[in-house]
Amino acid sequence: MAEQNTAASSFSSSDALLILLKARTFIALILVFVFFALNAPNFMSTANMVIMSKHVALNAFLAIGMTFVIVSGGIDLSVGSIVGLCGMVAGYLLLNGLDIGLGWTMHFNTVEICLLVILVGVLIGAINGFLITQLNVAPFIATLGTLYVARGAAMLSSDGRTFPNLNGNAEYGSETFRWIGTGHVLGIPFSIALLIVVGCLAGYIAARTPLGRHIYAVGGNERAAGLSGIKVNRTKYFVYIFSGFCAALVGLIISSQLVAAHPATGDTFELNAIAAAVLGGTSMSGGRGRIIGTIIGAFVIGVLSDGLVMMGVSSFWQTVIKGLVIIAAVVIDQAQQKVQARVVLRAQAALDK
């Protein structure tokens, strides 16, 4: 009888520890938020909350796309460069239009520019998918290559210069371009409202659709997924295309907010996206991760970055702290897997008895 009580107590302790580990990102967000609320001046002001939310939204878009990629067993290092290239494409179309030859130049309204920019992001994502699925290039190498190609193309589009004064032109219907970065929907900044839509869509795909189940299956065991009839290549195409789509949205939003486009925009954004996904519980080995966890992870990164800036912490120390947070997240993730395996084994042993 005493042994049964001890076993039950041990199981309860492990189960409680597992719950805490699964909720680690949310707990970390609360702790970070409270710390900066107490130590950073004006951290809780309405203006700062709005600005911080906009910063978080940019990373969250990329992190959502990155989550699908990592869950499928891949990695996408090109998203930051796609952000920069898409911003430059938007700037070029706004300022110069598209030369179609014979002295004719085609100009576009805001909606058409957005669609063309998104098409660029999607095409780069499709190229990543092609390299990985058809040419069997490792995801790390394939996306590293497109990182350089996209960044180079962004530089070439303006010889490394900035496209300034992206206010649009009323004559062509592009004067509303600034609204993308500064407009509101029902009192909510458009970028945040768009994040809610994209986040809900991604969460629905991941949790409620056969495609979502296929993504997890491919990341968990690609060979077994293929043998079970899942279209592995098609699934991989989707995750890289979706990642490119999310990066294109960020490129549009940033160029609209700044009313300018610079080819270096998005530099190292891919690292923050990976960090947010890992903090949110996405396993770098694939097969595990949740969209809501990733969004919370993006908030942790955003609150940490803005809070450290408001406290006057050196940018060098900020980089060190972010690195330590990422390492801690991976270590805790490994601990969660061990505890979870222990709980499963004990539950199985109890059933066998």
| Shape call | globular
Strand content is under 5%
CATH domain class: Mainly Alpha
Number of domains: 1
Please identify the structural class as seen in this structure. Answer: mainly alpha
CATH topology: ABC transporter involved in vitamin B12 uptake, BtuC
Terminal Cα separation, in Å? 14 Å
| Widest β-sheet, arrangement of strands | 1-2
Radius of gyration: 22 Å
Mean pLDDT: 89
Q: Spell the H/E element sequence.
A: HHHHEEHHHEEHHHHHHH
Number of DSSP helical runs: 14
Task: Set out the fold topology.
Elements: H1 2-22, H2 24-39, H3 46-71, H4 79-96, E1 98-101, E2 104-106, H5 110-133, H6 139-156, H7 179-182, E3 184-185, E4 188-189, H8 190-208, H9 210-220, H10 222-227, H11 232-258, H12 269-279, H13 291-310, H14 315-352
Antiparallel strand pairs: 1-2, 3-4
Structure in a nutshell:
It contains 14 helices and four strands. The chain is mostly helical and 353 residues long.
Notes on the structure:
Keywords: Cell inner membrane, Cell membrane, Membrane, Transmembrane, Transmembrane helix, Transport. GO terms for molecular function: transmembrane transporter activity. It is a multi-pass membrane protein. This protein has one domain: ABC transporter involved in vitamin B12 uptake, BtuC, CATH 1.10.3470. It has 14 helices and 4 strands. Strands 1-2 form a two-stranded antiparallel ribbon. A hairpin with a 2-residue loop joins β1 and β2.
